Amino acid sequence: MKRDATKQERSWVLYDWANSAYSVIITTAVFPLYFKAATDTAGISPASSTAYWGYANSIATLLVSLLAPILGTIADYRGFKKRFFTFFLGLGVVFTGLLAVVPQQQWLLLLVLYMLTVIGFTGTNIFYDAFLVDVTTEERMNAVSARGYAMGYIGSTIPFILSIALILLAQQEILPFSVGAASQMSFGITALWWGLFTIPMLRHVEQIYYKEPEPHPVRQSFKTLGQTFKNIKANRAIFLFLLAYFFYIDGVDTIIRMASAYGADLGVSSTSLLIILFATQVVAAPFAMLYGRLAQKFGEKPMLYAGVTVYIIICIYAYFLNSTLDFWILAMLVATSQGGIQAISRSYFAQLVPKESANEFFGFYNIFGKFATIMGPFLVGIATQLTGSTNSGVFSLILLFLIGGFVLTRVPSAAKVTADASASQTIS
């Protein structure tokens, strides 16, 4: 972190450092391979286990998506944002810890526990993203948001290295326990890392922009929710951005969630997968920062176009993958844009919405993103089962990037939206 960053900015960014351990170990790397091994032992085919993995992600994100706008609306009242953040944090950390004690043979229970960790992780991010308006200024949002993703990639490498070391040493029988036990230890490390490095966020970040509490907040939230939806429909820039985001972030998140399962289906060894995913984290960090700097210079939309274009190339290349080297190349392509497109999307949206209603709008931001991640894994699951090829499933995601990129061309720049809003206020 730069020295000119405030304590609130540093604490907010540090949560990306904390929860990215979950992203890489539970969502992307170790746990998917652990689950694959469990289903393989149970006699389930690779294509079917990949489909089950996709369905589990879809169901978990559906539950959060249904609650996101309501909880986001309530969280705009003074004092509620951090309460919801803390609740989902506890849910995610506790059930991630429980993954470390459930026997690998109970693959269905593991899948259920994983779904609960997804609910905790996803729910926490709704309020974490909305805290961006409380910790920094509009001028610094691109840089702070990108720095968060960069720190997340850097921070996640530490527990990831520990996890890889445990697993590889167990494979070589240097350590006196199995690979499965080593994987379980990595889940415990993840829970500890996630909880420990969230403490600064809990201590130093407060809700600055809020509405005063009203009687019957839940009932009032439904009324406010309806008004917010009308405001979104009336605000062309916000509506079109959310529509574009719905499609392109679907592809991004699906590729993240399905990466290990995809690699395993291609025959990439578990050891190679772990090394590749570690390298992806390392490469992604500077590229996330680069996206933030380039967005400051050229604007948010050109960098979003760049990210969408890279992912279209990724989908085309994925269709022809047939070796570990191909998977290496694919992973490095993902690393160049994964963090950048997410960081710029977050900061761009934060500039479009009114700060005192940030949670309401970020509730919709997250529901658009999470409903998208229901569709993506489901699409990959169906395509994989119908064709018997994971390559075809990943290639099908190209449609989402093409639609998202096209709609994005209709969205005005954040600077223009801000200027129009200022001119409107001046006239009134």
From TrEMBL:
Keywords: Membrane, Transmembrane, Transmembrane helix, Transport
Keyword Protein transport part of the UniProt annotation: no
UniProt cross-references to CDD domains, sorted A to Z: MFS_YxiO_like
Bilayer topology annotation: Multi-pass membrane protein
Coiled-coil regions, chain positions: none
Superkingdom of the source species: Bacteria
Listed InterPro entries: Atg22-like (IPR024671), ATG22/LtaA_families (IPR050495), MFS_dom (IPR020846), MFS_trans_sf (IPR036259)
Main location: membrane
Matching Pfam families: ATG22 (PF11700)
Example GO molecular function: transmembrane transporter activity
All copies of domain Major facilitator superfamily (MFS) profile, residue ranges: 237-428
GO cellular component: plasma membrane
Bilayer-crossing regions: 12-35, 55-77, 84-102, 108-128, 149-170, 182-202, 237-259, 271-291, 303-321, 327-349, 361-383, 389-408
Membrane recorded as keyword: yes
Location relative to the cell: Cell membrane
Xref: Gene3D superfamilies: MFS general substrate transporter like domains
Protein name: MFS transporter
